[in-house]
Write a structure and sequence with these properties.
heterotrimer; A alpha/beta (about 325); B mainly alpha (about 350); C mainly alpha (about 325); A: about 325 residues; Rossmann fold; eight-stranded mixed beta sheet; four-stranded antiparallel beta sheet; 14 strands; C: about 325 residues; mainly alpha; 2 strands; elongated; disordered N terminus
Chain lengths: ~325, ~350, ~325
C-alpha cells in the first residue's frame, strides 16, 4: 500500500503550435500527464514529436512568437504556470523546476567564467553573498566530478570538454535545489562512454537528492534503468504510457513495438537479426491527416484507424494507450 | 599574441610597398604642377626647365620613385646648373618632401590640418557608437514593433544617402530655414566666426552639422548590424539556459547578451575608419572646414603630387594600423581567443 | 508478442510533395519579403522614369540653356524647376538617371568581373599566387576608396575622348568613372569568392572532375563558380547601389562626369552655391539617388534572404 504521494506537476490538454511562413505547425496536440513527488518519468519519441516543446512551454521557454500556447494547463504545486507572465515565472525557473539542455557546447555563455555562471542563480534565488555562493558552487561541482575545482572556477566554458560541460550544467541546476529536474536529451550530444558516466551520475543524484525527474530522449534503451514510468509520444500526442516493466514486456502500441524492435540488440545473432527501421517517414506537422497519425507506418492498421483518431485510454492497470487495435491479437480493441 | 602582431605588421610591409607604387604611378599624371605654379601668368620656358630640374621632375620615373622613397641626400642633384648634394631624406625616413604649391615641407602642412579633421572624426565615432549600438539593441529587443520597423526603415534610408545629401538637408533646415523663420540657426561655413575668434564654443557650434553628417550613415549601418547581432545572440542556447535558471530578463540582457554583442563593435570600428574619412573629406569641402580632407582636395586640384601622396599614404597606414589595433583589442576581449 | 516481425517497405513516400527547384524556391522566398517586393516595384518605376521618360524629352531639350528662365522654382512648365543656366531640371534628371544607372550597372559589371577573376584564381591555386593577389587586394582595401578614386579620376581626367553611341554623345569621363569605380570595389567580392573556392575545391565533385582530366579553366568556371552564384548575385546587386552613390560623390566633388552630360551627382555639384535660394536644385537629384539606392538595397536584402536563408541573421 503506497503512502499518499502528492502530484508535483500536472499537465492537462496542452496544445502548442508554431507560426511559420509555410503554415501553422502543430507541435503539441492535447498532451496530459502527471509527475508525482520523487518520481522519474521518461518521455520518448523521435525528433519532432513535440517532447521538448511540451516541456519547455511549461516554463515559458519557447519563443512566442513564433510559438503559441493555444490551450491547456500546467499545474505545478497547484499553480497554473501557463497563465503566468515572464516576471511571474522567474521564481519558478531553476529554483522549483530546473532544465538541463541537450547541447552542452552551446548552452553555456562563452564569455563568462564558470564561477559567474554557476553562482549567479544561487545568489539570486537564495540571496547569498558571493563567497557563500562560491562555496556552494564548489560543493556541487565537486560532487558532479569536476577535477581541481578551485582552480577551474575562473576558467571559461570553451576550456572544458563536452562531458565536463554537461556535468557543469547539472551542478549548476542542482545547486538551486529544484523539486523537479527536466533533462532534455542530456546525453544525445555526447559520445557513448561519457553518456554512461552522466547516467550513473544522474542515478546517484536521484538517490541522494530525491527530486522528481522528467528525462526526455529518443533512445528507449537508456531509460529502462532510470525511469519508473515511460511516456511515448508521436506527432505531438501521447500514444502510450506505462510503468517500465509493463512498457517493455506488455507493449500495447504499434509505435512502441516498432521502437523496441529497432533497438540494436547485443544478444541477437548477427546473421539472423537485421537492424529494423520503421518504414515511411515522420509525420508532417503542417498537415495532420484524419485519423491516427501513425496509420501510414503502422503494421496493425485497420480501416477505422484512417478515419478516426484514437484517444488515450486505460488498457490495463496503470497502462494507457491510444490505439484502436489489440496488438496481441491484431483485432480491434473493444 | 606577440607573434600575431608581428605577423600582421610584417604582412603590412609588402602591402604598403604596393600602395606606394600604385600611388606614385597615379600621381605622376595628375597634371603638371610646374605649369600651374605661375598662377595666372603663363610660365616662361627657361623658368619651366629650371624648375623642372630643381624639383627633379626631369629624372626617369623609377629614379623619381627611388628618390621619393629613400631621398637623395646620398647623391648629387642639379640645382640651377650646379651639382650639389640632395636634401631629401625620403619618406621611409619621414621626409615627405616639399609642397609644389606652397613650397613648405609637406609634413608641416599636413600636421597643421590633422587636428582639425580629428576634431570631426573622434566625436563622430563616439556618437556613432552611442547611438548605433543603443538603437540596434533597442530594435532587437522590440522586434517587429512599430518602433523597430520605423528604425529599420530609417537605417535603410540612412544607408542609401550620400553624405553630402545629408549635409545639404541639414544646412537647408538648420541654417537656411531656421534663419528664415527667425530661430537660432547653425552656421554652415568654417570652423569659427572670424569676428568672434576661435573659441571652444564657436568651434563646437560649427562642429555640429559636419559631425552629424559624418555620423549619420555609420549610425545606420551600426544599428543594423547590432540589431541582427543581438537577435542572433538572444536566440542562442546559453540565453535560454540563463532564463531557465530563473534570472531576470534585464540581467540576462545586460550581462549575458550584451557582453557577447559588444565584441563585434571593436571590429566594426576598424572597418569603419575609411568611411569616416570619406565623410570627413566631403563635409570639410561643403562646410569649409580646414582639415586634411580639404587640404587633399585643394592640392589634388593643384596637381601637388607630394602633398597628395603624403596624405594618401598616411591615411592608408592609419587604416592598416588601426585595423591591426582593433583586431588585437578584440582578441584580448574574447576569452576564447585570448586563451590560445 | 513477436518483435521479430519484419516491417515491409511502405508506400508512405506517396504522401510527400514533389520538391521544388532551387530557383522556384528562391523566388517564393523573395516574394514573401515585403520590403524587397516594394523595392523592386520602386526600382521598376524609377527605371521607367529614366528610360521611358526620355520619350517625352529629347536630350537636346535637357541641355537646352535659356538664361531668361534661370532658377525658376517648380511650376507647370518646368515641374522640377530650372537650373542656373535655365535648363529644365526634370529633363536633366531623366537623362541623368540614365547615365547614373548605366554607370552603376557597368561599374558593377567591372567589379564582378575583376572580383571573380582574382577571387577564383587566388582561392583555387593558393600558394604564392594567393599570397601576391591577397597583398594586392589588401593594398587596395587599405586605401580609403574616396582617396583612391579621386586620385584616379584626376589621373584620367581629360585623357579619354568622348564617345558617340546611337547618336548620343557620352563624355569620355563616363567611361573613366565606370572603370575607376569598378576597379576600386572588387576587393570584397574577391575575398568572398576566394573563401568559397577555398572551401569548395576540396569537395568531391571537384576531385571527380580533376580525375577525369577536365581542364583547370573548366573546373574553375564551369564547376566551382556556378556554386558560388548566390553571394555573387547579392554582391553585384549591392555593387550597383554602391556604384551609383560612388559616382555621385566623385561628380559632386567636380571630378566626375563633366557637363553638359548630366548625372544626378554633378547636378548636385552646382546646387551648393544656391542652397539658400533654390532648394529644388538639389532636392530632386538627391532624392532620386536616395530612392534608387534605397530600392536596390531592399532588393539586395531580399535576394540575400531568398538565395541563402541560412545567412539570414534575422
Amino acid at each position: 500500500m503506497t503512502t499518499n504521494i502528492g502530484t508535483l506537476l500536472e499537465v492537462r490538454d496542452l496544445n502548442v503550435c508554431f507560426h511559420t511562413p509555410e503554415g501553422i505547425v502543430h507541435a503539441v496536440n492535447g498532451v496530459s500527464f502527471k509527475v508525482l513527488d520523487g518520481e522519474t518519468i521518461a518521455v520518448v519519441g523521435e525528433s519532432g514529436c513535440g517532447k521538448s516543446v511540451c516541456m519547455m512551454s511549461i516554463l515559458g521557454l519557447i519563443p512566442q512568437p513564433p510559438g503559441e500556447i493555444t490551450g491547456g494547463k500546467a499545474y505545478y504545486k497547484g499553480k497554473d504556470l501557463l497563465g503566468l507572465s515572464e516576471d511571474e515565472l522567474a521564481p519558478f525557473r531553476g529554483k522549483e523546476i530546473a532544465l538541463v539542455f541537450q547541447d552542452p557546447m552551446t548552452s553555456l555563455n562563452p564569455v563568462l567564467t564558470l564561477e559567474r555562471q554557476v553562482t549567479e542563480a544561487i545568489i539570486k534565488h537564495e540571496r547569498l553573498d558571493k563567497n557563500n555562493a562560491r562555496k556552494k558552487a564548489l560543493t556541487y561541482l565537486e560532487w558532479v566530478g569536476i577535477p581541481d575545482v578551485g582552480r577551474r572556477l575562473s576558467d571559461y566554458p570553451h576550456q572544458f570538454s563536452g562531458g565536463m560541460r554537461q556535468r557543469v550544467m547539472i551542478a549548476m541546476m542542482l545547486a538551486l535545489k529544484p523539486s523537479l529536474l527536466i533533462a532534455d536529451e542530456p546525453t544525445t550530444a555526447l559520445d557513448v562512454t561519457i553518456q554512461a558516466q552522466i547516467i550513473e551520475l544522474v542515478k546517484e543524484m536521484k538517490k541522494q537528492f530525491g527530486m522528481s525527474m522528467i528525462w526526455i530522449t529518443h533512445d528507449l534503451g537508456v531509460v529502462a534503468d532510470l525511469a519508473e514510468r515511460i511516456i511515448v509520444m508521436y506527432a505531438g500526442t501521447i500514444v502510450e504510457e506505462a510503468g517500465v516493466d509493463d512498457l517493455y514486456k506488455r507493449t500495447k502500441h504499434p509505435y512502441t513495438l516498432a521502437l523496441l524492435a529497432a533497438l540494436p540488440r547485443v544478444d541477437h545473432r548477427r546473421d539472423v537479426a537485421k537492424l529494423r527501421s520503421i518504414r515511411g517517414s515522420p509525420p508532417d506537422n503542417l498537415n495532420f491527416p484524419k485519423g491516427c497519425p501513425f496509420a501510414p507506418r503502422c503494421d496493425y492498421v485497420l480501416d477505422q484507424c484512417w478515419t478516426s483518431k484514437p484517444t488515450l485510454e486505460y488498457v490495463a492497470d496503470g497502462h494507457l494507450a491510444a490505439c484502436w487495435v489489440n496488438v496481441e491479437t491484431g483485432k480491434p480493441r473493444l | 599574441m606577440g607573434r600575431y602582431i608581428t605577423k600582421r605588421l610584417l604582412q603590412a610591409i609588402p602591402t604598403m610597398f604596393i600602395i606606394s607604387l600604385v600611388l606614385f604611378v597615379l600621381t605622376q599624371n595628375i597634371g603638371d604642377p610646374v605649369t600651374t605654379m605661375g598662377g595666372r601668368d603663363p610660365i616662361r620656358p627657361d623658368d619651366y626647365e629650371r624648375l623642372r630640374t630643381e624639383l627633379g621632375l626631369d629624372q626617369p620615373i623609377y629614379l623619381q620613385y627611388v628618390y621619393w622613397m629613400i631621398g637623395n641626400d646620398w647623391t648629387k642633384v642639379d640645382v640651377g646648373g650646379k651639382e650639389i648634394l640632395g636634401t631629401r631624406k625620403g619618406i621611409l625616413r619621414g621626409d615627405f618632401g616639399t609642397s609644389l604649391m606652397d613650397r613648405v615641407p609637406v609634413m608641416e602642412l599636413v600636421w597643421s590640418r590633422v587636428p582639425n579633421t580629428l576634431l570631426l572624426m573622434i566625436p563622430a565615432q563616439i556618437i556613432i557608437i552611442l547611438f548605433g549600438v543603443s538603437i540596434g539593441i533597442y530594435s532587437a529587443l522590440k522586434q517587429y514593433s512599430l518602433m523597430d520597423n520605423i528604425l529599420t526603415a530609417g537605417s535603410f534610408i540612412g544607408l542609401s544617402m550620400p553624405v553630402f545629401f545629408i549635409s545639404l538637408i541639414l544646412i537647408y533646415v538648420f541654417s537656411v530655414l531656421f534663419q528664415h523663420w527667425g530661430l537660432p540657426h547653425l552656421p554652415a561655413v568654417g570652423m569659427f566666426e572670424p569676428a568672434v575668434g576661435k573659441t571652444p564654443l564657436q568651434v563646437a557650434i560649427h562642429m555640429i552639422m559636419p559631425v552629424t553628417s559624418i555620423a549619420f550613415i555609420s549610425i545606420a549601418s551600426y544599428s543594423r548590424f547590432m540589431r541582427s547581432s543581438m537577435l542572433n545572440i538572444m536566440n542562442q542556447d546559453y540565453i535560454r539556459t540563463a532564463k531557465a535558471k530563473g534570472l531576470e530578463k534585464t540581467y540576462v540582457i545586460l550581462v549575458h547578451a550584451l557582453k557577447n554583442a559588444a565584441l563585434p563593435i571593436v571590429t566594426l570600428m576598424g572597418m569603419d575608419l575609411p568611411l569616416l574619412l570619406a565623410g570627413a573629406v566631403v563635409t570639410e569641402s561643403i562646410f569649409g572646414w580646414p582639415g586634411m580632407g580639404r587640404l587633399f582636395l585643394d592640392h589634388l586640384e593643384g596637381s601637388d603630387g607630394p602633398v597628395v601622396m603624403a596624405i594618401v599614404i598616411l591615411v592608408a597606414l592609419a587604416v592598416i594600423l588601426f585595423q591591426i589595433l582593433t583586431d588585437l583589442i578584440y582578441a584580448l576581449l574574447d576569452p576564447r581567443i585570448r586563451m590560445d | 508478442m513477436d518483435l521479430e516481425k519484419t516491417f515491409p517497405e511502405g508506400s508512405a513516400e506517396d504522401l510527400e510533395a514533389p520538391p521544388l527547384s532551387l530557383s522556384k524556391m528562391a523566388w517564393m522566398r523573395f516574394r514573401r519579403h515585403k520590403m524587397a517586393m516594394f523595392g523592386a516595384s520602386l526600382l521598376l518605376f524609377l527605371l521607367l522614369f529614366s528610360f521611358a521618360g526620355a520619350l517625352f524629352f529629347s536630350e537636346g531639350y535637357a541641355n537646352y540653356t535659356n538664361t531668361d528662365i534661370r532658377l525658376t522654382s517648380p511650376n507647370s512648365a518646368h515641374p522640377f524647376g530650372t537650373d542656373p543656366i535655365g535648363r529644365d531640371i526634370l529633363a536633366r534628371t531623366i537623362y541623368g538617371g540614365q547615365i547614373s544607372v548605366i554607370i552603376g550597372l557597368s561599374a558593377a559589371f567591372v567589379m564582378v568581373f575583376v572580383g571573380i577573376f582574382v577571387g577564383s584564381i587566388s582561392g583555387y591555386f593558393g600558394g604564392w599566387i594567393d599570397a601576391v593577389l591577397m597583398r594586392i587586394t589588401e593594398a587596395f582595401i587599405s586605401i580609403p576608396r574616396i582617396f583612391l578614386v579621386l586620385v584616379m579620376a584626376k589621373f584620367f581626367s581629360n585623357k579619354v575622348p568622348d564617345i558617340t553611341i546611337y547618336g548620343s554623345t557620352f563624355s569620355g569621363s563616363v567611361v573613366v568613372i565606370i572603370l575607376i569605380i569598378g576597379l576600386t570595389s572588387w576587393m570584397s567580392l574577391a575575398r568572398i569568392v576566394r573563401a568559397e573556392f577555398l572551401s569548395l575545391k576540396e569537395n568531391e565533385f571537384v576531385v571527380a572532375a580533376r580525375s577525369t582530366g577536365t581542364p583547370t579553366w573548366q573546373i574553375i568556371f564551369g564547376h566551382i563558380l556556378p556554386n558560388t552564384i548566390a553571394p555573387i548575385i547579392v554582391a553585384a546587386t549591392l555593387g550597383v547601389a554602391s556604384a551609383i552613390i560612388g559616382e555621385s560623390y566623385i561628380s559632386f566633388l567636380g571630378l566626375g562626369v563633366q557637363p553638359p552630360t548630366a548625372t544626378w551627382g554633378n547636378m548636385l555639384d552646382g546646387a551648393y552655391q544656391y542652397i539658400q535660394t533654390a532648394p529644388w536644385l538639389w532636392i530632386f537629384p538627391g532624392g532620386l539617388i536616395l530612392l534608387t539606392v534605397l530600392s536596390i538595397n531592399f532588393v539586395g536584402d531580399g535576394l540575400r534572404d531568398a538565395l541563402d536563408p541560412r545567412s539570414r541573421l534575422i
